[in-house]
């Protein structure tokens, strides 16, 4: 099977679907709020690479022009159509390498992510862009510095329903600077999480004591917000009233802290999460161990 639904990953090895998809599938199995999606497996990537056009490609343009094998493309189309039938009309296409989100190396920000993809043709192209990012100089250098071999060609691609986030952010189940295991740290800002993970904004920061539940806050500048465009994303200035207010209520902070503690218990180790909130509902977008 070249394409597997996110809800059907139980018992599927990380070597087949990559760490990002496997972790989210495990959270979905636990009933946690993960957007629906599917993963294009490592097998599909390797089959594509064995095709003459991909194997002989010397440039990115030639690689992207190589056709995805018909059987794989048909399986992707079937899963994408199923998402649309559940009122998912925009997706995020994200790398899910088996060498990603390791305890010793996260590969965070090294591979490609494409947001607000709105057609099957675009999904197919962005899957190939994710595959191509496996060979990028940035990834090769990062792997070399971490003494990690990329010879296994272990790249899956996750296609997941896009959350039109009012607020999004990153959570650490232990303090990322002091390593205090009692303190949960939440960084949050308006719009899509890309603004935070790419360093475009200074987010609000909330620190929560696991022992007492006390919340301390630091207001961020939240200079801009990343929003869905007609396809892809666009950046807009935040309004003065948005900059002057905290992006999360105390109730939301406590709900996120409770979710984080629950996931930390499930994983048996400190975790780094990405989340989005739309119309008051929290969605879990990524789960990975905090790297040492």
UniProtKB/TrEMBL annotation:
Domain Pyruvate phosphate dikinase AMP/ATP-binding, chain residue ranges per copy: 15-292
Recorded superkingdom: Bacteria
N-terminal signal peptide: none
GO MF annotations in UniProt: ATP binding; kinase activity
One Pfam family cited in the UniProt record for this chain: PPDK_N
Alphabetical list of InterPro entries matching this protein: ATP_grasp_subdomain_1 (IPR013815), PEP_Utilizing_Enz (IPR051549), PPDK_AMP/ATP-bd (IPR002192)
PANTHER family for the chain: PHOSPHOENOLPYRUVATE SYNTHASE-RELATED, PPDK_N DOMAIN-CONTAINING PROTEIN
Listed name of the protein: Pyruvate phosphate dikinase AMP/ATP-binding domain-containing protein
Organism annotation: Tumebacillus avium
């Amino acid at each position: 099977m070249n394409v597997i639904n996110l809800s059907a990953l139980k018992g599927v090895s990380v070597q087949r679907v990559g760490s990002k998809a496997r972790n989210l599938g495990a959270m979905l199995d636990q009933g946690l709020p993960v957007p629906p999606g599917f993963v294009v497996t490592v097998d599909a990537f390797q089959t594509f690479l064995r095709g003459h056009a991909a194997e002989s490609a010397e440039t990115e343009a030639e690689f992207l022009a190589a056709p995805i094998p018909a059987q794989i493309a048909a399986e992707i189309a079937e899963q994408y159509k199923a998402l649309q039938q559940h009122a998912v009309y925009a997706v995020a296409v994200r790398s899910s390498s088996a060498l990603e989100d390791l305890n010793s190396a996260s590969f965070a920000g090294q591979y490609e992510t494409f947001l607000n993809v709105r057609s099957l043709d675009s999904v197919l192209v962005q899957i190939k862009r994710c595959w191509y990012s496996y060979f990028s100089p940035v990834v090769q250098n990062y792997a070399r510095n971490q003494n990690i071999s990329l010879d296994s060609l272990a790249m899956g691609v996750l296609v997941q329903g896009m959350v039109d986030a009012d607020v999004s952010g990153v959570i650490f189940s232990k303090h990322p600077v002091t390593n205090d295991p009692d303190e949960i740290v939440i960084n949050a800002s308006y719009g899509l999480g890309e603004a935070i993970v790419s360093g475009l904004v200074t987010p609000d920061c909330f620190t929560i004591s696991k022992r007492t539940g006390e919340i301390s806050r630091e207001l961020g500048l939240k200079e801009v917000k990343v929003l869905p465009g007609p396809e892809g994303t666009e950046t807009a200035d935040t309004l003065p009233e948005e900059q002057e207010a905290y992006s999360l209520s105390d109730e939301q902070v406590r709900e996120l802290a409770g979710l984080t503690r629950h996931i930390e218990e499930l994983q048996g180790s400190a975790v780094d999460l990405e989340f989005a909130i739309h119309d008051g509902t929290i969605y879990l977008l990524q789960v990975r161990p905090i790297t040492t």
